[in-house]
Specification:
The structure is a homodimer of 222-residue chains. Helices cover 42% and strands 17% of the residues of chain A. Chain A is α+β, with helices and mostly antiparallel strands and 222 residues long. The longest helix of chain A has 24 residues, at 69-92. In chain A, 30% of the residues are buried. The interface between A and B is medium-sized, with 18 and 18 residues. The structure holds a DNA duplex (30 and 30 nucleotides).
DNA sequence: ATTTATTTTTAGACAAGACTAAAATGTTTT
DNA sequence: AAAACATTTTAGTCTTGTCTAAAAATAAAT
């Protein structure tokens, strides 16, 4: 029953620390945090002191920072809210998956436990957001997603799109144009050893996808 | 196509000015604004200077303030967003009408024209919010609501609840307990001259409503 | 038309969150 | 182990939005 007063700025820092630690487990360095936040190292240091005072992180000067138990819970709740709102924006309001990030970035800061839970209920307790990213449940438990990259499929193998590792609108729009939305099926026809590009079949269409695409597209092999 | 950068604090002041001017047309005085905002006159003065710099209000020191064309448009858009979100919270998420104000107060500050319009569309372009207050359209046009107070009905007259003039949770909860939600039908049976209280029939039940209730309940006579 | 009372503004401080420039610490290199 | 480089922190300043206390302007009253 902890109220836990946090500002949007603090929450964004917590999320950033979480995100960096997710990719690169261990201590998060001030510069990495500043880069992720698009701010200066000085500002990051300032904020780390504040977060440390509030017991949301364990911070040692010059050594870096990790989330505390509470900080982790808060960051997880934030991601939960962000992704639930993304589902709402796409499934209910009809936005495309490349349009929702900025709105969700604002909506995730709306305070009130009951709102999140009612939203979750309204949406039918989705386990993944429109980009295939898992949505932690109210207790903060995560569901594992298929992390097989298209890159690893051999000719003849077929897969279903389960997510992306690059959330930039340009990539998402490109995928949409190719018919590669979440749940789409594709088959690898050929692979070029030279540049790791792959000829694939998406429905009736055949296209060549670069290594970069193969790297950033998650599939479940079928 | 004006971006019009405004902070939540600025928006709340604009709304407060709008609200006061709605009840008491004319110039809004600093003290009234400070009272509405629950802040000091000094803070209100500070903010009025800022809003004046941004051309959102016409402000003359010691004389008071009025909204500019732009300020008015902004305040209206804010009220539109607030009330649309209230409809969402009640109709879609299943909140009671006395629970939604604080959430809507946060949600109204979410930036992005397209979000509001998609939400409006999703909700089926509602013209009134869960309290019966009119929702201005995208152009800022208002719909007039029946402003007949229950107080004015004579014995024998029947009415349909169309709104409330007191939005406090206690009043709204009381009404809900009585079965007096929006659209509910009632009939005035007797009226006591002494205290303006009224015996009314709501469905099968008969109750006595005080003058205060009669004053704060809007009905359409049928 | 002064005095009195009310309203409003200024002055000076503070907290959050950001910045730049400079100092301090840590890490690598020679 | 000192020099060179990279990283991080401190110091000082800025803006937004708030506060209290004091000064100034307006309105009311004698």
């Amino acid at each position: 029953m902890n109220a836990l007063l946090t500002t949007s700025a603090e929450e964004n820092y917590l999320k950033a620390i979480f995100k960096i630690a997710e990719k690169e487990p261990g201590v998060v360095l001030t510069n990495a945090l500043a880069a992720e936040m698009g701010t200066s190292a000085a500002s990051a240091t300032d904020m780390l002191k504040r977060l440390s005072d509030k017991q949301l992180v364990a911070y040692e000067k010059y050594r870096g920072v990790t989330l505390s138990e509470t900080g982790n819970r808060l960051a997880t709740a934030l991601i939960r809210k962000h992704r639930l709102w993304e589902v709402f924006l796409v499934d209910k309001l009809g936005f495309a998956w490349d349009e929702v990030h900025d709105f969700a970035e604002q909506l995730e800061h709306i305070q009130g436990e009951t709102l999140t839970e009612r939203l979750d209920n309204f949406l039918g307790h989705p386990r993944f957001d429109p980009h295939g990213d898992p949505i932690p449940d109210a207790q903060g438990k995560w569901m594992r997603r298929t992390q097989t990259r298209l890159l690893t499929l051999s000719p003849g193998q077929r897969g279903i799109v389960t997510g992306v590792d690059d959330h930039s609108p340009t990539f998402l729009q490109y995928l949409a144009e190719l018919g590669l939305s979440l749940g789409a099926e594709l088959e690898v026809l050929e692979r070029t050893a030279y540049d790791q590009s792959a000829k694939v079949r998406i429905g009736e269409r055949e296209t060549v996808l670069s290594e970069k695409v193969g790297q950033n597209l998650f599939v479940r092999i079928i």
